[in-house]
Queue: 4 jobs
Job 1
Amino acid sequence: MKLLLKIGAIASHPVFLPVFSLLVYAPLVAKYGQDALILSLIWILFVYLFLPLIFLKYIRKIHLAEPNLEERRSIFKAYALINFGFAVVSIFLMSEYVSFFVSAGFLHVLMLLLAFVELKASWHTAVWAFILSASLMVMYNYQLVGLFQTSWLVLGILVAVAFIRWKAKAHTPFELGMGIAAGLLAALPILFF
């Protein structure tokens, strides 16, 4: 059972946020063609996953499996800067993603603020609640009728992630709820861009 919980936690980890965003943004970025999407995916994995993990683990010496509050602050600062950087780059490459990365940066700023007041919120549930809220905002902005089923899928994943994190005793129900609230709130800028 512990192995299944660990696999679920890794598969739904927040560092894969840009990959998960394809659940929502696939219809909008389909016009770029498969080669451009593959190149973008490789670039995102390199900059969003590989470089931050090397920086956080080997330069900042953060215990990534169970970071304390100070280490969580460093993680959220790094990912807030990365997301805002991606928003700037997206202006030139995939303009559909600008509001997504601005909102993702806002999510990490919210998580950073919660860490500064020493509230531990679940990063996992925050990201999946963010994707759920983003799917609803994109569905409303672009009138994408087929995205409704995807929203249900993301909601199911959010519930599963919350259950996995609770069952693994990684978070209390309050911390899971704080993560969900932060994620839902952070996606609001998508509605206005």
Job 2
Amino acid sequence: MLCRDCHKAQATVFLKAAINNKVTEMHLCAACALKRSERHAGEHEPAGLGPMGGFVKELLPSERRQLACGECGLKYAEFRESGRLGCPSCYRYFGTQLRELLARIHGSCSHAGRRYRDTLSGLSDRERAEKMAALRAALKVAVEREDFEAAARLRDEVRELENGR
């Protein structure tokens, strides 16, 4: 559906107001909704957005409020288009949005797969304790099943973690 005002852009703001028992619908693009809210600020007429103007401003993306990396200047909208971050600092600046995105895509935002041996030294204390508990439980199961090869491998992994490698 096209914007009621400019008849060019796709309508993304849909407002329905009941004034004096008369229902008025407005279908506007983001730019026209913002213009209309600024032009009719404080008015309570069907032509303007009246008290809804502030609400509409909060919903619309604003260049001033758009999140950007402080190091490379990449905007979050640009990342969403390209799928690539500009620098390592982008992970810090877009941390909240990236966690939400990963949770939506993968169902979780924490890594649960294998790691290279080099990265075991980079584990936090909590991750190290969780990994140690999981390995010991798997070791106990392997011994109970009399799978001594797997038990030996698991024992070695526990020792590596204990030694901090």
Job 3
Amino acid sequence: MLQNVHIKAGNVNKLYIYVHFNITNKTKAQCVSRRSLHMSRTLFEQNQIESIANQFKLSPNVLTQALTHKSFKHGNTPNNERLQYLGRRSLEYFAVDLNKSQNAQQLNQIIEKANESQHLVARFDALGLESAVRCQLPGNNVSPAVKSKVMQALVGAVYHEQGLNAAREFVKKTIFV
């Protein structure tokens, strides 16, 4: 029978899991690579998700999906690809809708700028969402490509949960500032 479990950090890439068994009264240590160990969200992370969800008026599940890159757990959890697609197309629509009086060439430039990675990364950084993003890419920082995809997925999530008008207001306030 399992009595208790302790996890202790080893070097940079290893965790040691100590398991004490009641029947044999022995403790076994198992070394596990950090990359292969997937733990559920901590209470702090869950509170952070709920706080951000309240800020954007989204359900925690949809927000978590919007913040989850397809690399997380090798794509075996719901990720933000569909929300990102919806968000990217919505951004194009809102760019045209908010600039109806422009000519075709100017509209094309506005559409390109709406989904431009640099612009979306700047908006992502302004919102301070990096610690909430779920991805497993090399390095400690979230890449600019993932940041821009998360911003598009957030637009898609707002559109999905709250509708066209709420998404338009969200885009006006957070993307087109």
Job 4
Amino acid sequence: MGNHKEASSGCYTAMALLPISEAGARLAHREHQRLRRDAEILARWNGEAIPVIPLKASTLNDDDWDELAGFAFAHRPLLTSLGSLSRLLERCELALPALRGRLEEKCSDANLCIRLGLPGRKALLVAQRREVAHALTALDDERAQRLRERVLQWQFFH
């Protein structure tokens, strides 16, 4: 599910999966569950209802940890990680002003940069990534370091 409306249609992008194997069926089921976990968060962000029965999930699961590590330690986009980032903010008591400002207050990047004294969007993204890394470390330092090392290893292969 996309997070920006397409200019030509005014609609959000979506991807459908049609499994043709057992592995494909497992993938489709897993992604459907992920969409259900993220449905309410995406609906609040986009202002559009998603036609699935949402799952009330506030705990961080393994997929969330992987997404959060991809955001904190690699190049995963912020809006692609909305669900896991929102669940992280629910669990974490740290201030995280760059992240909370964007996701909870829906403050624009420009206004956040002014508020936080940052020179631009790239610096804001660096601050948001740093905050997520700090939050992961605060929740489970050993797991965060293990995921960081795994992500950094993958970066050398691509």
